[in-house]
């Protein structure tokens, strides 16, 4: 279980449900005999901590298009960190989340102490990775960005409360709420709430709901208490895509057919300082 928490590669089954966020304490009480609360939930007042993701896609939204077409084998790419106002040179997780039919495969490579945009200008042996597995998955991440012409597109955030199963090799329960996003074409993780747009809005949820409950476990080892929780709350399966919803709102907020402006793309071959200078000139 401890190894799964600090994972480099996970294979898991995911079930999603829309719930009112007020159910969080009720769910926590139900899970108490089977799970322990995530460390960051324990140390955060109220139990909900911030997650910040920078999603990458091509200029023509290749990954989003795969999702809309419901391809049986697809993936998306993001660079994750934690906190409402994350450090520009902190800990960043380069993640590819692949879905084959109903099974999710999530790879993660971690770097520490630099802005994630710097890895494109460094030799792999100089990346500040935790280990060789991380180096391998960061290298694979960069390969995919070149193969699919993927660049930063959206910075998303949400608040999460989470639990880990006590008895299984890997089982996890999360409640996510307060989803929001802004456009980001570089590697700037600055967050000003006034410039963030909400995707935690009623049209993305079932009536009376404002949070997403996710049950995650290996497809061959679904804990019995997850079935009990589904019955206890009378849950009905519902889809929710943080990336997809943010992209839908991006089109509404940022696209204007009468004043179309070609988006600025960070040039991965240029130093960060030159990219920032170019951005100021756009």
Q: Given the helix and strand composition, which structural class is it?
A: alpha+beta
Number of self-contained structural domains: 1
Which regions have little confidence, pLDDT < 50, spanning 5+ residues? 257-267
* SS summary, helix count: 8
Give Rg in angstroms.
Answer: 19 Å
**Termini distance?**
48 Å
Which whole number gives the mean pLDDT? 90
The count of β-strands is: 10
Order of helical and strand elements: HEHEHEHEEEHEEEEHHH
Order of adjacent strands in the largest pleated sheet: 1-6-5-4-3-7-8-10
Main sheet makeup: 8 strands, antiparallel, barrel
Fourth CATH level, the homologous superfamily:
VTC, catalytic tunnel domain
CATH topology: mRNA Triphosphatase Cet1, Chain A
Molecular shape: globular
**Strand composition percent:** 25-35%
- Helix share bin: 25-40%
Name of the CATH class? Alpha Beta
Architecture, CATH level 2? Alpha-Beta Barrel
Summarize this entry quickly.
The chain is an alpha+beta fold and 282 residues long.
Q: Could you walk me through the main structural features you see in this protein, from its secondary elements to its overall organization?
A:
It is a single chain. Strand 7 (151-165) and strand 8 form a beta hairpin. This protein has an 8-stranded antiparallel barrel with strand order 1-6-5-4-3-7-8-10, surrounded by 4 helices. The protein has one domain: mRNA Triphosphatase Cet1, Chain A, CATH 3.20.100. It is α+β, with helices and mostly antiparallel strands and 282 residues long. Helix content is 26%, strand content 32%. The termini are far apart. The longest helix is centred in the middle third of the chain and has 17 residues, at 132-148.
């Amino acid at each position: 279980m401890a190894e799964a928490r600090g994972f480099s590669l996970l294979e898991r089954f995911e079930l999603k449900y829309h719930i009112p966020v007020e159910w969080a304490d009720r769910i926590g009480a139900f899970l108490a005999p089977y799970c322990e609360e995530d460390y960051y939930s324990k140390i955060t007042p109220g139990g909900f901590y911030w997650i910040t993701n920078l999603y990458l896609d091509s200029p023509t939204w290749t990954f989003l298009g795969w999702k809309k077409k419901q391809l049986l084998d697809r993936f998306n790419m993001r660079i994750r960190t934690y906190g409402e106002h994350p450090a520009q040179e902190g800990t960043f997780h380069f993640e590819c989340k692949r879905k084959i039919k109903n099974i999710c495969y999530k790879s993660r490579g971690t770097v520490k102490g630099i802005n994630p945009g710097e890895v494109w200008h460094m030799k792999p042996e100089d990346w500040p990775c935790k280990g060789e597995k991380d180096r391998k998955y960061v290298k694979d991440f960069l390969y995919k960005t070149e193969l699919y012409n993927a660049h930063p597109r959206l910075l998303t955030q949400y608040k999460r409360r989470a639990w880990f199963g006590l008895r299984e090799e890997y089982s996890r329960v999360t409640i996510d709420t307060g989803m929001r996003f802004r456009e980001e074409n570089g590697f700037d993780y600055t967050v000003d709430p006034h410039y963030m747009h909400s995707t935690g809005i009623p049209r993305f949820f079932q009536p009376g709901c404002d949070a997403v409950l996710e049950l995650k476990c290996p497809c061959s080892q679904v804990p019995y208490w997850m079935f009990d929780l589904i019955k206890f709350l009378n849950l009905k399966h519902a889809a929710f895509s943080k990336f997809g919803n943010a992209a839908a709102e991006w089109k509404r907020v940022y696209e204007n057919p009468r004043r179309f402006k070609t988006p600025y793309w960070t040039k991965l071959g240029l130093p960060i300082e030159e990219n920032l200078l170019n951005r100021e000139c756009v």
